[in-house]
Here is the input.
Amino acid sequence: MSKAVAGKPGSKGLRLYNTLTRSKEDFAPIDPDNVRMYVCGPTVYDFAHIGNARPVIVFDVLYRLLRHLYGEAHVTYVRNITDVDDKINARALRDFGADIASGKLSLNEAIRRVTEKTADQFHKDVASLGCLPPTFEPRATEFVQPRPDGKTDMIGLIQSLIERGHAYEAAGEVLFDTGSMPEYGQLSKRPLDEQQAGARIAVDEHKKSPGDFVLWKLSSPEEPGWDSPWGRGRPGWHIECSAMSSAYLGEVFDIHGGGLDLIFPHHENEIAQSRCAHGTHAMANVWMHNGFLQVEGQKMSKSLGNFYSINELLETDTFGGRKWPGEVLRLAMLMTHYREPIDFSVRKLEEAENTLRKWKRAADLAEGEGKLPDGVIEHLSDDLATYGAFQHLTQLASEASDGDAPAASSLKTALEFFGFDVSAEVDHAVVEASIARRLAVIAEKNWAEADRIRDELLAQGIQLKDGKDPATGERITIWEVKR
Ligand code: AMP
Ligand code: ZN
Here is the structure.
């Protein structure tokens, strides 16, 4: 664990670029005993693409760094699953249209099938990329209506916004009144009058200002919906993250992350909702955004035929005529600084594969436990300068090859820290113990914990398969090493 650094209390020498101030700042958590981070997660209607993998990997590295600096038990990482969205409804109708028409499936049931299958796939994909499961992974549908546990819900937040004069009902919608918040636009640096002057497109008649956005909209009888004070309807996209972040991290927390495209409107609107509903000066203190990924020099798009899902790269020969191990994709992603654009190419993946091979060969010379090198932490503490940290690893690899055993041990520890697989052998006893723990929580119907244990093992390359003992009919779990 690194030493405390002079300066703000709780500061550990970590500096992060804050989109809110457009500058690199010393990071000091609100509560060093509980450092709190929220990252916008996937909308689960289709396979996640390789661009979606970037925020997951980047913020996984930050999560690992925070755990190193503040202690594993002192970091809470929340990444949501968006399982209510019109794109999901459309996908359910496309995939299960006939069953819905014949009455075999309700729309809600079809939607549940789409979202569960996609969320499972997402978990498998990101575990293959070496990402740790977040501390909590709330699903939007569970936070629409008031909850028995009293955690923040979307309807409650919208009610507060109406009561405080920041939202109004019009034409079957509840809208956020952007004119009611003088600081609206601070994150994206878009002053409100500019947005209004720039709005050439026909303004929706029912809106007070063109930038006003939907908090709630009514559903037709065929559409999914929840009862609310404004009628049966469904939430807008932005309100989800305001509810789920507040539910787990409180009204003001430390770090909020996502891709660059989310700055406007999504994050701007999250800030407006949370600050106005809670009457706070901030939603999160630090706002971080990863740059965009393009493929072989072009924007990834289905029409250009250069659109790749994570799963395709892992399991098929469509990119460069071969499959790619998850850790090669992970390293390739991290070789570029997270705020820069990345050009994902076969050449880059080959370079990552070669580098990883050299590092692992050198790490094989390790004798016993090594210390995580200070140089690696120093680079990462400079706004996640992964490239500098990797140069440090290459230096260690060269010292290790020259017979420096402590360098090899440090290298091995650093590779593990980054989520690369250096375990020569799986410790059977440890895996069996985790499986036994998982069976015990399943018996208590604690599915969330069971899934967490499964994903934790998957992140170490161990895949579980549930089944029944043919002789006794008892539930059993078998496992295999995937990487
Ligand atoms: P979405 O499901 O579109 O909301 O995206 C999920 C996450 O992936 C968000 O944080 C997006 O900013 C991010 N994202 C989407 N496309 C890309 C891309 N091409 N490069 C980097 N990040 C992306
Ligand atoms: Zn969000």
About this structure: The chain has three domains: 15-290, 293-417, 428-481.
